[in-house]
Amino acid sequence: MNKTLIVVAHPNLDxxxxxxxxxxxxxxxxxxxxxxxxxxxxxxGIIDVRREQELIESHSELVLQFPLYxxxxxxxxxxxxxxxxxxxxxxxxNGESMKGRTTAIAVSAGISxxxxxxxxxxxxxxxxxxxxxxxxxxxxGARYKGVFALYGITEDTNPKIIKASSRDYIQxxxxxxxxxxx
Length: 182
Description:
This protein is α/β, with parallel strands linked by helices. The protein contains 7 helices and 5 strands. The protein has a 5-stranded parallel sheet with strand order 2-1-3-4-5, sandwiched between helices.
């Protein structure tokens, strides 16, 4: 299959301004993208590991989409990574299912971009904060292609900004398949 799998990890997607808009936009391109909602699929937190691995294997790219929670991902996404990226499947002896697979991250943050600077409030860039994901993707031999981010999202954010970010997100995802597309 030549579709991109978007693993959406938002515990309250109906309240998630950016993530909700992004998934709504993604759903209009079902021939290109599969959205997989972890909190809807696994409300009890018990993950069907083999099913998840098969889902990844049936797609050409993998994107993790989530809101930034305490400078990390929501807990179910961390559990998903721990459970699904197993020895013998994602790494280790015969573990080559992630090798060469294009991966990326899409993150929304309630914090302004300026606060994610060396001289900003939090002293670290978003890229630095997300380093554990990059290292994990590198460890399993995946090709990490960066992060799509929307900063400073609040209930007062202009809907035009959210709509524009949704279109930009689709373009970001399409470039994962065709990096030469501008």
